[in-house]
Amino acid sequence: MNPVAIPPGxxxxxxxxxxxxxxxxxxxxxxxxxxxxxIAIGGGLLLAMLFVAVFAxxxxxxxxxxxxxxxxxxEPGAEFWFGSDMLGRDVYSRVLYGARVSLLVGxxxxxxxxxxxxxxxLFSGFIRLADSIVMRIMxxxxxxxxxxxxxxxxxxxxxxxxNVILAITIAEIPRVTRLVRGVVLSLREQPYVDAAVxxxxxxxxxxxxxxxxxxxxxxxxxxxxxxxxxMITEAILSFIGAGTPPIIPSWGxxxxxxxxxxxxKPYIVFFPAVFLSVTVLAVNLLGDGLRDxxxxxxxxxx
Amino acid sequence: MERRNLLTxxxxxxxxxxxxxxxxxNVAARTLRFVPQANLAxxxxxxxxxxxxxxxxxxxxDMLYGVDENLVPQPQMVEGETxxxxxxxxxxxxxxxxVFHDGTPVLARDVVASITRWAPRDPMGQMIRAxxxxxxxxxxxxxxxxxxRPYPKLKFALGKTGTPCCFIMPxxxxxxxxxxxxxxYVGSGPMTFKRDEWVPGARAVFERAARYTPxxxxxxxxxxxxxxxxxxxxxxxxPDPATAANALQAGEVDWWESPISDLVPLLxxxxxxxxxxxxPLGNIGSFRMNHMHAPFNNLKVRQAVMMALNQQDYMRAxxxxxxxxxxVLGGFFTPGTPNYTEAGGAVMKSANMDAARRLLAExxxxxxxxxxxxxxxxxxLKPMGDVTADMLRRLGMxxxxxxxxxxxxxxxxxxxxxxxxxxxxxxxxxHAGADCVNPAGYNAIRAHxxxxxxxxxxxxxxxxxxxxxxxxxxxxxxxxxxxKINTEAVSNVVYVPTGFFKSYQxxxxxITGVVKGPLPFFWGVAKS
Amino acid sequence: xxxxxxxxxxxxIPVMAFVALFVFSLLYLAPGDPAAVIAGDQATPDDxxxxxxxxxxxxxxLVRFGExxxxxxxxxxxxxxxxxxxxxxxxxxxxxxxLSLMIVTLIxxxxxxxxxxxxxxxxxxxxxxxxxxxxxxxxxxVPVFVVGYLLAYIFALELDWLPVQGYTPFSEGFFPWMENLxxxxxxxxxxxxxxxxxxxxxTMLEVLQQDYIRTARAKxxxxxxILFVHALKNASVPIVTVIGIGIALLIGGAVVTESVFAIPxxxxxxxxxxxxxxxxxxxxxxxxxxxxxxxxxxxxxLLYTFxxxxxxx
Lengths: 302, 528, 313
Prior knowledge:
The structure holds three protein chains of three kinds.
Chain A: H1 28-35, H2 37-54, H3 91-126, H4 128-143, H5 146-156, H6 161-188, H7 191-198, H8 203-240, H9 251-258, H10 267-294
Chain B: H1 6-14, H2 25-29, E1 31-35, H3 51-60, E2 65-67, E3 73-75, E4 78-83, E5 89-94, H4 108-118, H5 123-130, E6 132-137, E7 142-147, H6 154-159, H7 171-174, E8 191-193, E9 203-208, E10 232-236, H8 241-250, E11 255-256, H9 264-268, E12 273-277, E13 283-289, H10 299-308, H11 311-319, E14 326-327, H12 353-363, E15 369-375, H13 381-395, E16 398-404, H14 406-412, E17 426-432, H15 460-471, H16 475-492, E18 496-501, E19 504-508, E20 511-512, E21 526-527
Parallel strand pairs in B: 1-10, 1-11, 15-16, 15-17
Antiparallel strand pairs in B: 2-3, 4-5, 5-7, 6-7, 8-9, 9-10, 11-19, 12-19, 13-17, 13-18, 14-18, 20-21
Helix pairs in contact in B: 10-12, 11-13, 15-16
Chain C: H1 2-29, H2 34-39, H3 45-55, H4 61-73, H5 87-122, H6 127-141, H7 144-158, H8 174-208, H9 211-218, H10 223-260, H11 266-276, H12 279-307
Helix pairs in contact in C: 1-4, 1-12, 5-6, 5-8, 5-10, 5-12, 6-8, 7-8, 7-10, 8-10, 10-11, 10-12, 11-12
């Protein structure tokens, strides 16, 4: 700042200390990651989990469903790296293959809920007639606690990965819709939208070119939180017994099966719990970092 | 005091203003807190055949006869009976002074009504009804049962532990139709049911019945005097075994009906807890097949499964690594009993997957789906289901695994439609050893087609053997009949037993009088 | 302002109507036959038909829906299929433990989380901030039942400070009641604390940059007064919003916590009912939870008008 010549006789007050310390600026990708370490840590952990899930068959695993009751409940050791469970299955293999289910559920729910919520939110934000009806329905669905909604939906069908994804997605759509609609409503009043309308641009084009890009940023951040919530919800559903069938290992149902024994054989619950917690942590950190990098003010509403 | 109550200790100093009416030390000492094997969801022992309902019902209702620890029926509510020389007319006389909990006396009318409600829903009762000419109350204390053929096992039918048991209810309650639930729980048993304190899924409360008059004799299982030595019995439902184990160790409950075997070493390490076998007669696990539809309507397919089934895998999965708890069965009856037989059962005692695969190929199995109903909420049945899915796959069958809850299994197993249309191919269950000692009361071994237990096996040779057993005049002919039944049941695969297993029970040291038996017996149990 | 209040209250009616429609449709869509369940193992097909007719299961959808709504409005929530007890009675038996758990968790979480968030915002960028936020994210990530088992093991079994399980009614004394609730509330509250702390911090960060904070400072207000009086009051709207939304999380978490700590509450009732397909109970409980949730959010909306006079719709 160029120093301004101060006229004599003018008293200038002392500079006020900022209530908050200033944040220093950095440049480049490395700079970006250093400025937002949460993205680096979160993203890195998540990539590691993805690697484990995708390459599970090559990481010295056995068939996760093959049981050997004669070798049940062995402690972690040379033969079973994470020990064996009550039916003699290898916990290490089950945990690694379980990553597939948990990550699949998390990403699928995040993707579908975002896509469907985006569509409904755009539609509702733009077409006033539909707005009140849709928002009442969304309010109604949000009134039912998501876990109860998911469990109730699971009660209607047989347990399977697809049904779990469907149930949790339905439970998460209202929040996304709300978010998108909020953005649409606030953007609708902007001058450039008026200009587009005035120049005769169709509603669809306005949605596509002007509104949609602005929703993507908060939507992405919300999607990461949905992913984390979906993984935890899947674990809770399995814990209760309303989740993925035990033939397909997921972190949730490995813990559910091992919960009775956790005091004598804690490793059956411990390893999937650690993997689940680390993954959810990674996704949350990633979401926080993305949000901070886009616009810290979003923290107030997400 | 077994626990240091950090907060209550501090509170005792200064929070008397907040303290409400607390249960006094004395009452707490006379309250027995018991963790049952399952939730008591409903309380009609004739409508529902679950063991947990029977266990609770045995407290509230009394029976005409009761089996002792040798499974011999002893008179309980009955003072004595006389049988005519041709064995066709039975005259019974009730004990004097029997009273229901609401003060009304027990009359022969109530007995007749109760038997009439019970008989159609019990296989032995059905057999008796089929030959019944008359069941009538002669006066207030006497009733008569006239048959067209002799039925020597009548007393056993009235006093057995197998569900449904013939509990005696007031006439107005027994008048409820068999497939509606009773709404009043009034009996003449040693305890009353506190209806207002019943929270299904969480708690059931019983109190000692002041009006109960025990008969003389020595108490043994369902026979003799049923003297209750505590004032109050609380059933605390705990679906989570880890929580139940902690509660028992902390002294928050006194007696756990069925601790899982993996937690038993933990409980044994606690100086205040005793652990022992719950029931010497144990249980028989069952792979129950649907004989009406493919693929198990094909004898060779059933035999292939029996050949492939490894009882050791199932038993380890169900009860754990403790070999005191299980053994391999060579037949369908309870080991350790005088009439136990392994005739014809060699194929069951070992598993031969290769031979099974060959037999399956011979059978003409056309890859029809095997719809397996597995109750995931049952700690004994879920592991069996997992082992079955693995075994059937390795055998080369097309498995359709339906993981659901026990209630749904109970519903769906009654459906006679083909598996693809809401029916089923197999489900898992278990039978109490007390019910499988011989054909009397052993519903699961009956093979008379449509009228048989779920699965509806139709094997005339087994039925012939059962009839021979009922008619057998001497122990030797009984023995021969049992051998025949066993051989026929094995070669025709009525169902596939998955093994014989026992379970533990655990209780705190200050509880005395806990005995082994097919159900938990609360009389004679004291808390100090 | 009254017009706003009345409008908000009226707006809840269509919401509840939708919930009722959804909840009723659950029974209609569900597989399985309640009549077969009630008839029991030994019933003949005729018995099942008779029971189905007596339950009115063969009448058309709208007729049944109408009857059901009519009964609900009179307070009759139906009868449980499995226990034959009125659903209302079953709910009433279980409501005190769940309510106690949720209130204690709410108070605990709010009284810990808000100061946490405020301090983190105040000391933004320092290790305190990172520690608080790190703890928050961690609480968010570890499943509730794992936390529950750990707490039970350490504090109840090993240290023997608190009971392992169960629930003591309030009528038996404040401290026994509280003892049974400390561990479950802590386990359940973790996620809630994380959520509230994060929102508090984020909102406080923005508020603390505002001009009126500088003014207050210039006028000589102390740090505590600035943080808790001037800043927090202005930050309250989003915080209260999150507290309201978070109650849905609490309800979900209560289901698991009640299972781990054997608390005989509504959460376990719901899970048992859902797993057994006891539809009248499921309907009754989901309806109840939704109703409570709608009321709570209504209360929060109305609270806004007091917290922030600028909000006038």
